[in-house]
Amino acid sequence: MEDYVDVFRASLKRCLASEDFLRQFYHRLMASSEEIRQKFENTDLDRQARVLEDSLYLMTVAAQSSRSGEEVSPAWTEMSRLARLHSRNQLDIRPGLYDLWLHCLLDAARSNDPEFTPEIEEDWRKTLAIGIEYLRSRYEGGE
Question: Does the domain spanning 4-137 belong to CATH 1.10.490.10?
């Protein structure tokens, strides 16, 4: 049986092979909320797309290390930095916005991975849930 993180990684790779994947994601995300549009008002979306790609791989490594009990890994050091950046004190990404983010990301994945199934979607959710919950939990204090 294939590991859900491996299934996620393979699906992500197929999505990233499409030049439309990240563009579609940001189009959906901007359309989802005025609050989100304002957060990205002065953002270079080409650069942001590269940052997102790196963050998705980071969340993959964090999910794998979390399962093996390695929560002191370099991935978690980087997740801590990401959490501080997204906290109330910096970018102020409210915990509820991650639901919209995930919804838009899954919609884009569904459109760009020709092998996408409900089972693969569940593997996306399980893999990303660890990182999303970590970011949500660090919103107030930024720690």
Answer: yes
